[in-house]
Automatic annotation (TrEMBL):
Top class in the EC scheme: hydrolase
An annotated Gene Ontology molecular function: UTP diphosphatase activity
EC number: 3.6.1.9
Subcellular location per the Swiss-Prot or TrEMBL entry: Cytoplasm
Protein name from the UniProt record: dTTP/UTP pyrophosphatase
Keyword RNA-binding: no
Active site: D75
Database matches in Pfam families: Maf
Lineage, uppermost ranks: Bacteria, Pseudomonadati, Myxococcota, Myxococcia, Myxococcales
Sorted UniProt keywords: Cytoplasm, Hydrolase, Nucleotide metabolism
Essential cofactor(s): a divalent metal cation
Similarity comment: family membership: Belongs to the Maf family. YceF subfamily.
Organism: Myxococcus stipitatus (strain DSM 14675 / JCM 12634 / Mx s8)
Length: 197
């Protein structure tokens, strides 16, 4: 018997409001169920491998409690050379991270994973170049509170826009969900998309 694909449930395994907004903008109907996993990198783990591992883990944890659903998860990290910059744990750490990024180009990686009938995953890489920042600019930005809960201590889509000189690659990848690649992934897996109903 033919089953209508659009009856398949889509679950976003994320507590991130950015990811929720992006998926909504695509016209997709979904529920949200955040996965709480250990995000500690393995010793010497490369950024691409790290974000893929975490995205897959988040998707699997939620898929295990969502029978019959497609589960989408993602993880974003900032890398300076081989060093991973996660979310700052304090204003001092945020200042330190922003100082490291000032006047240089860094890498942003997002891993996207889909779990359900089968698994699919991909990682997207964007290069972001920061302006040379003054200490006063960094202090002010940290005082806005925006760096909290942001990989690399900035939000390009918010007040942190002034930090950035240029972006090479997917802009939505930097905010936490590379939209073009995520759509391609869902299409490949057979997840029902709004314009295909
Ligand atoms: C670099 C950058 C990161 N970020 C955010 C995206 C991610 O939400 C966050 C990185 O943390 P993640 O661990 O990728 O995601 P999360 O903890 O917010 O949500 P969940 O694991 O439940 O899905 O940093 C921005 O919003 N703007 C930016 O410019």
């Amino acid at each position: 018997m033919h089953t209508h694909a659009d009856q398949t449930l889509l679950v976003l395994a994320s507590g991130s409001p950015r990811r929720r907004d992006f998926l909504s903008q695509l016209g997709l109907t979904f529920t949200v169920s955040a996965a709480d996993i250990d995000e500690t990198p393995h010793p010497g783990e490369e950024a691409r491998a790290y974000v893929l591992r975490l995205a897959r883990e988040k998707a699997r944890v939620v898929a295990a409690r969502s029978p019959g659903a497609w589960v989408l998860a993602a993880d974003t990290t900032v890398a300076v050379g081989t060093e991973l910059l996660g979310k700052p744990q304090s204003p001092d750490e945020a200042r330190e991270m922003l100082g490291r990024l000032s006047g240089k180009t860094h890498d942003v990686f997002t891993g996207v994973a889909l779990a359900g009938r089968h698994e699919e995953a991909l990682a997207v890489h964007t290069r972001v170049t920061f302006r040379a920042l003054s200490a006063a600019e960094i202090d002010w930005y940290v005082s806005t509170g925006e760096p909290v809960d942001r990989a690399g201590a900035y939000a390009i889509q918010g007040k942190g826009g002034f930090l950035v000189a240029s972006v090479d690659g997917s802009p939505t990848n930097v905010v936490g969900l590379p939209l073009g690649e995520t759509l391609a992934l869902m299409e490949r897996a057979g997840v029902p998309l709004a314009w295909k109903r």
